[in-house]
């Protein structure tokens, strides 16, 4: 019983510490803006790339891109001058980005991130 409690506390602490360290102090300690992506038109954008494109270059404050459930068939690239972005899905089983590319691996990535200070969570990325 005590070993189960210890494991639970250890997992809880690692989860808390992981979420605290995800926000790098370079970008501040809080999210200043949230952009919603929804394929059905109930968000700010219908594609993840359009949401990323809307973030200004030279950004140094955390911006969250909340991706609603669905399968997004698109190639996503975060340019070097767009840091401090959190891309967050509604869950790995319900939010997916996939892209049909069969070229050389250096040009066919489904998701490419060039800058530092990028967090991607609760989302599945598939190369098909």
Q: Could you characterize what this model shows?
A:
This protein is an alpha/beta fold. The protein has one domain. The protein is 22% helix and 32% strand. It has 2 helices and 9 strands. The strands form 3 sheets. The chain has a 4-stranded parallel β-sheet, covered by helices on one side. Strands 3-6-9 form a 3-stranded parallel β-sheet, with no helix packed on it. Helix 2 links the parallel strand 1 and strand 2. The termini are far apart.
Write a concise synopsis of the structure shown.
The protein has 128 residues and is α/β, with parallel strands linked by helices. The protein contains 2 helices and 9 strands.
Helix content: 10-25%
The H-and-E topology, N to C, reads as: HEHEEEEEEEE
| Biggest sheet details | 4 strands, parallel
Structural class: alpha/beta
Q: What value does the average pLDDT take?
A: 84
DSSP helix count?
2
Strand content: 25-35%
Low-confidence stretches: 1-21
Tally of structural domains: 1
Tertiary shape = globular
Radius of gyration: 16 Å
- Give the tally of β-strands: 9
- The end-to-end distance, rounded to whole angstroms, is 45 Å
EC number: 3.1.1.11
Keywords: Aspartyl esterase, Hydrolase, Signal
Family: Belongs to the pectinesterase family.
InterPro entries: Pectin_lyas_fold, Pectin_lyase_fold/virulence, Pectinesterase_cat
Annotation keywords:
alpha/beta, 32% strand, single chain, four-stranded parallel sheet, 9 strands, 2 helices, 128 residues, three-stranded parallel sheet
Summarize the helices and strands and which ones pair or pack:
Elements: H1 2-22, E1 31-37, H2 48-54, E2 62-67, E3 70-73, E4 76-78, E5 85-89, E6 95-99, E7 111-113, E8 118-121, E9 124-127
Parallel strand pairs: 1-2, 2-5, 3-6, 4-7, 5-8, 6-9
């Amino acid at each position: 019983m005590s070993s189960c409690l210890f494991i639970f506390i250890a997992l809880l602490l690692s989860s808390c510490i992981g979420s605290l360290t995800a926000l790098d102090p370079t970008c501040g300690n809080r999210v200043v803006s949230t952009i919603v992506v929804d394929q059905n038109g109930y968000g700010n954008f219908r594609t993840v790339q359009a949401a990323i494109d809307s973030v200004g270059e030279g950004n140094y404050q955390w911006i969250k891109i909340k991706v609603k459930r669905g399968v997004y068939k698109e190639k996503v690239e975060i340019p070097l001058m767009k840091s401090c972005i959190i891309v967050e899905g509604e869950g790995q089983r319900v939010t997916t980005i996939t892209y049909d590319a069969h070229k050389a691996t250096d040009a066919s990535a489904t998701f490419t991130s060039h800058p530092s200070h990028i967090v991607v969570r609760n989302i599945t990325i598939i190369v098909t």
